[in-house]
Amino acid sequence: MGPLISSAERDALYKIIYSHRDVRGEFLPDPVSDEVLQRILHAAHHAPSVGFMQPWDFIVVRDLEIRKEIKKGFEIAHREAALMFPEEKREQYRSFKLEGIAEAPLGICVTCDRKRSGDVVIGRTANPEMDLYSSVCAVQNLWLAARAENLGVGWVSIIQHDHIRNVLGIPGDIVPVAWLCVGYVSFFHETPELEQAKWLPRLELGTLIHREQWGGNAT
Amino acid sequence: MGPLISSAERDALYKIIYSHRDVRGEFLPDPVSDEVLQRILHAAHHAPSVGFMQPWDFIVVRDLEIRKEIKKGFEIAHREAALMFPEEKREQYRSFKLEGIAEAPLGICVTCDRKRSGDVVIGRTANPEMDLYSSVCAVQNLWLAARAENLGVGWVSIIQHDHIRNVLGIPGDIVPVAWLCVGYVSFFHETPELEQAKWLPRLELGTLIHREQWGGNAT
Fold first, then answer.
1. Which end of chain A is more exposed for a tag (fewer CB within 10 A), N or C?
2. Residue of B nearest to A162 (CA)
């Protein structure tokens, strides 16, 4: 039948969702045990996946030298990114702390093997991106599980795929989906840092809900 | 500081993750209250997003006629899909129940507005797919929140984007990311249905974990 979830259990999920942050600057060097690591990877592996293909792999990097190589890819992509912003935004962009690759004791690369279960996959026929989306569901499960273990996670997307492939020896047909920095933290921010910095406001949920059709008024 | 998560709260998350299913055939017609709907949309809206762009919208469809129009898109794409499978798999593919669009009382289309916060987005510069991935994180939050409310959710990906755009009047530059069927259920399956049907096995987690490098042995 599947278990009934109690209201206390439901509220625990909401507490985890609402206190969950993208962590960049608050990582502590404290080691993450293999037991905790296994629990968060197990939760990631139980994400839903299109056609049950489970297209993900998890490359767990503890070695600091390898993480420093990954960080070089961030530095290159970050310099390039700064120049894309209009001049008046550039200095603020550069002032943000956007990764904790070397400080967090653990890096986890989540990938997508698009050939995992053959060329034809149930549910991927009309929308070929569905396997990538499945790996993202695994990332989000891992992220929430980590928060539930009082671990911080930061997703660093300012790195070219090929840089990650080269450093980790990932075959060309495997897609890196996320580089995650994982570790205990000194604190979790009360609200997202880009909201605190007034880079962008939290949108009003009511403006994002449409009734029956695009543009349908909220009731 | 961000709240500490207790071990009971952590275990609640794991219970939700492990009993979470992609629901197709067990929807009940019982209505979903606006209060519960608001809670799951609020949880979705608090997913992490690249550069805090919050690119998602939620089109909530209760109207059965509109859902029947969406279902026509599934029927077309499903017929096309069957022909892509090798002949010996085709009959089994056709035998699967893959959607509950008309039976579930609620459809929710989650989209991605790629221009939401301008052309240059923090974290999307090297990896332009990151905004789509953010909408997927919102879907996964919604899915887990729904399970915590004892609601089933099924993600139907066997529909062309343009069909969804046409039926719901979605502008051409907004990307439909997911069509979700949402409702109470008669039961949740113990394990994923495609696993039960021996379409594919659950992979051994240990084979998916690499240490330090791709192919690095588990320890």
1. C
2. B126
The minimal CB distance from B136 to the residues A133, A205, A216 is found for: A133
- What is the Cα–Cα distance from B13 to B7, expressed in whole angstroms? 10
Q: Nearest 5°: phi and psi at B3?
A: -70, 150
How do beta strands B174-183 and A152-156 pair? Answer: unpaired
pLDDT in tens, B175-206: 999 999 999 999 999 999 999 999 999 999 99
Q: Does residue B83 belong to the interface with chain A, where contact is any CB pair within 8 Å? A: no
Nearest-angstrom CA–CA distance, A30 and B18 = 28
The full set of domains in chain A, from first to last, is: 22-193 (3.40.109.10)
What are B41-77's pLDDT values in tens digits? 999 999 999 999 999 999 999 999 999 999 999 999 9
A218 touches chain B (CB under 8 A): no
CB contacts, 8 Å: B192 with chain A: 48, 52
CB B168 within 8 A of CB A214: yes
